[in-house]
Specification:
GO terms for molecular function: UDP-glycosyltransferase activity. The chain is α/β, with parallel strands linked by helices. 29% of the residues lie in helices and 23% in strands. It is built from two helices and three strands; from the N terminus they run βαββα.
Length: 69
């Protein structure tokens, strides 16, 4: 983060719940933060505005399949 740019690629899991606060805080402090997340995700689906940029990538597994797994 010393260069002012940060790419965050969290895996699906509970660690994102605390990691998003760090990404938000760094963005608020002037860092350029890009979060790369899957299109389908339980924990990463918040629809609120972000101080950071969110980019998504397609996945073959959909919510129905995740719920059944």
């Amino acid at each position: 983060s010393e260069g002012g740019k940060l790419l965050v690629v969290p895996m699906v899991g509970s660690h994102w719940l605390s990691m998003k606060d760090v990404a938000h805080e760094l963005a608020e402090r002037g860092h350029e933060v890009v979060v790369l997340k899957p299109e389908e995700s339980w924990q990463m689906g918040d629809k609120h505005g972000h101080a950071y940029t969110v980019k998504t990538y397609p996945v073959v597994t959909k919510f129905d399949e995740l719920d059944n797994a």
